């Protein structure tokens, strides 16, 4: 299955993007991470995508490491950093989707 993760971080600094990217790859090294761009969701923030081939079971394991309180099912879920514990304090928003 194809997994896509949309990430928004509350910083526009290159080094913060690199830090979050490295942490993400430590959690799941098979992610392919896109370059970042200015976020349309949050001021002074950047967004990027990470994609991978992943099973539903492995996706559940990875999601548990990324955030402690997802809204939705494993194949379509979101999390916000202001009311949950993210894998990095700079992460503002995550959206994960699985496709057959």
Explain what the structure shows.
- With 100 residues, the protein is an alpha+beta fold.
- It has a single domain (2-99), classed as 2-Layer Sandwich (Alpha-Beta Plaits).
- The protein is built from two helices and seven strands, in the order βαβββαβββ.
- Strands 1, 2, 3, 4, 5, 6 and 7 form a seven-stranded antiparallel beta sheet that branches.
- A hairpin with a 7-residue loop joins strand 3 and strand 4.
DSSP helical segment count: 2
Q: Which parts are unreliable, with pLDDT below 50 for 5 consecutive residues or more?
A: none
CA-to-CA gap between the ends?
A: 5 Å
What is the radius of gyration computed over CA atoms, rounded to a whole number of angstroms?
Answer: 12 Å
Global structural class? alpha+beta
> What's the CATH first level?
Alpha Beta
Q: The biggest beta sheet, please?
A: 7 strands, antiparallel
Return the string of H and E elements: EHEEEHEEE
For this structure, the CATH topology is Alpha-Beta Plaits
Q: How much helical structure, as a percent, in the residues?
A: 25-40%
Number of strands: 7
